[in-house]
Amino acid sequence: MAFYRTYRPQTIAQLDSEYIREILYSFFSTKKTPQSVLLTGPKGLGKTSAARIIAKVVNCTGRRKDAKTIDPCNKCSECVSISSGSYLDVLEIDGASNRGIDEIRDLREKVKLSPASAQKKVYIIDEVHMLTTEAFNALLKTLEEPPTHVMFILCTTELQKVPATILSRCFHISFEVATEDELLRSLDRIAKGEGIKIEKEALKKVASLALGSFRDGAKVLEELGFFAKKKQITLSMVEAQYRVSHMQMFVNDLLASFAQKDVQKGFLVIQKTVKQGVDMRYFIEEITKTLHRVLLESVEKKQTPIESGFSFTLAEIQTLAVFLDSAYQKTKYSPIQELPLELVLVQWVRQDVPAVQSSDPQLAQIPPKDFLGKLIEKVKLSNHSIAGVLRGSAIDSFEKNKLVLTTPYAFHKDRLEDKQVQSILAKACEDICGTRVNISVIHRPKGGEAI
Length: 451
Ligand SMILES: [Zn+2]
Hints:
Blueprint: H1 3-6, H2 18-29, E1 36-40, H3 47-59, H4 77-84, E2 90-94, H5 101-112, E3 121-126, H6 133-144, E4 150-156, H7 164-167, E5 171-174, H8 180-194, H9 200-209, H10 214-228, H11 235-242, H12 247-260, H13 263-275, H14 280-299, H15 314-331, H16 339-350, H17 371-382, H18 384-391, E6 394-399, E7 402-407, H19 410-417, H20 419-433, E8 438-443
Parallel strand pairs: 1-4, 1-5, 2-3, 3-4, 7-8
Antiparallel strand pairs: 6-7
Zinc ion is lined by residues 60, 62, 72-73, 75-76, 78-79.
């Protein structure tokens, strides 16, 4: 049996999400427990486990009178049969295959009947967003005035598809993506239960591969346990198994494609990553982390060139971060995992990134006859990142077809002196002046002398 199912939490205390533990304890501490609950959130976060625990809490007969907790005993016949899914008064209904009006009408009739033996008949409707509008309307009538012996637990991954009228009748519990600590708690419980030996760093890597899902984390750990064959699982074992060691190379290559606005190259990098079996959400996370480092470097004005030598303006970083965030959300539900990221690249190349407004007087210096402005506009058409570097530069002199630029950062000077960049600049200058222009660059730190 899969680890995730074997190690399903059986009590509120065992739930790995701190927020859900707290909210469930407070849910049962009220005098009149709500009769309809809506559990929402992504897959693999324990909604079904929580639903079963709720069913056990309301029906457990083995809890001692002086018990300090409302958690179920998991020993009485009610608890045992609810855990195994065989209890007659706790019905789990799949909303996707019982979505029509007839099924819900049928349910409404059965709801009226008293439970066979339980204190409360519990209806757990999974994937409730799949119900038709008519079925939702029929369900709403029951939710408005439910018989006292009934409790409804509706579960869905798509809250936005649940009508507001249904939502307003339910106590809503929203499951959020698991934090690293929560994932570690869950993985640690499973590893101990299975007698799996795993390095602390390796466990952390598994948590990062789980992408906020308890179920995914359990799956990764299960696979690793299988391959490790009772040996201790090390970080390098995890990296080899999930091919994450080359990740930074892929990340740099892709960011360089963004900087160069090279769709073809970017698509190749993405395809290579897909072939390596890298999870796209994990890939986007790593890209975002690197972009975050670039942002911090830019803000702190350390301006050290990062490994692959690409540079972005603040506006470009901002835009790219927003694009990546949206792709990250979409990837989970996309039928083609890499499509959202590919579309980010296309969108990036097609859009016009706004210029960075600098408040630094040296950077904002108006160049002669606005030649620099024209140059930036020209260069932007073929390469945004060089345009970004130019925006941070100024014209020192422009005489007899000799253009001297100054830049406050050494790595911008290196970038502008790059052979390929020089030819782009030369062509742009020629387009503007109609003649060849010789371009040189001086590194002049702010308030300092030229170097
Ligand atoms: Zn019990």
